[in-house]
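Try this one yourself first.
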């Protein structure tokens, strides 16, 4: 049985990875999951300088998922390069570094700093608020998406994945803009903006007022967007959004995703990624499919 997939010239042992921000940089989860069995480890967002994140409380449970407003807390790229990359290099898995920033220059600083590091790909989180444009996310303006993609591609030595925000009127417009900018792959979806109010305290459940909603409740939206994007662009897609098991993952693959990321499920089940992988294998056995690539995007 072949589970190997290729994204932008990078060969993955299998199509299962975890979503940025739900797995740290692998250290915490290495007690529960054999990282060698993951197609890739996707790191938490890395910025050019340390980010403290948002005030607490910054997580709230919702029906079928959760809200988070962590604010991309991270120790900065220097600490990441010294501490996390050497740890991940101990494992036979691909390393995808998620990059965040508040200006185009912030992103480029991280991309250049990572250029000679032994990583496999970079995932550019364009759901960050663009401080120079009054806080609208980079990923909500197609001109901005194309421009930042072009700028990153001009500096990057590794293949680039642009991570798309679902908080837009038409996801395919953003996908085409990233493709026009030269992206090697796309990942989607990032979280959907939501809010929860604590009716007993009569205030917002998280200090930031709004947060990113993830978990099973967003999956139908995510599958729809992956399908639309797969039929609008020619670059490979990493699909994510509410994947809890192998059946969920197969929806994304059949819709057109070459690989899948498991996010919120990790918080309630530390071995969720392994369960998804074995679920995909079971599905292939059940349907007598020898090669996962035969299933990508076959639902039209």
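Now uncover the answer:
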């Amino acid at each position: 049985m072949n589970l190997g997939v290729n994204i932008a010239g990078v060969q993955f042992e299998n199509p299962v990875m975890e979503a940025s921000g739900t797995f740290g940089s692998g250290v915490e989860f290495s007690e529960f999951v054999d990282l060698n069995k993951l197609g890739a480890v996707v790191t938490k967002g890395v910025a050019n300088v340390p980010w403290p994140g948002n005030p607490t409380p910054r997580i709230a449970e919702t029906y079928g998922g959760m809200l988070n407003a962590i604010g991309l807390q991270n120790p900065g790229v220097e600490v990441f390069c010294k501490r996390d990359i050497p740890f991940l290099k101990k494992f036979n898995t691909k390393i995808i570094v998620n990059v965040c920033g508040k200006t185009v220059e912030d992103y480029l600083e991280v991309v250049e700093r990572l250029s000679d590091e032994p990583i496999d790909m970079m995932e550019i989180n364009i759901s960050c608020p663009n401080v120079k444009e009054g806080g609208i996310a980079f990923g909500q303006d197609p001109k901005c998406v194309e421009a930042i993609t072009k700028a990153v591609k001009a500096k990057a030595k590794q293949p680039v994945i642009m991570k798309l925000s679902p908080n837009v009127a038409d996801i395919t417009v953003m996908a085409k803009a990233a493709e026009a900018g030269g992206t090697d792959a796309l990942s989607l979806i990032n979280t959907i903006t939501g809010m929860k109010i604590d009716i007993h305290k009569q205030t917002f459940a998280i200090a930031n007022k709004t947060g990113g909603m993830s978990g099973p409740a967003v999956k139908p939206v995510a599958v729809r967007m992956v399908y639309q994007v797969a039929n609008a662009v020619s670059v490979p897609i990493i699909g994510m959004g509410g994947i809890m098991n192998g059946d969920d993952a197969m929806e994304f693959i059949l819709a057109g995703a070459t690989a899948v990321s498991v996010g919120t499920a990790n918080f309630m089940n530390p071995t969720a990624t392994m369960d998804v992988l074995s679920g995909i294998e079971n599905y292939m056995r059940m349907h007598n499919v020898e090669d996962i690539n035969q299933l990508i995007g076959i639902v039209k």
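Discussion: The two ends are 25 Å apart (CA to CA). The chain has one domain: 5-294.
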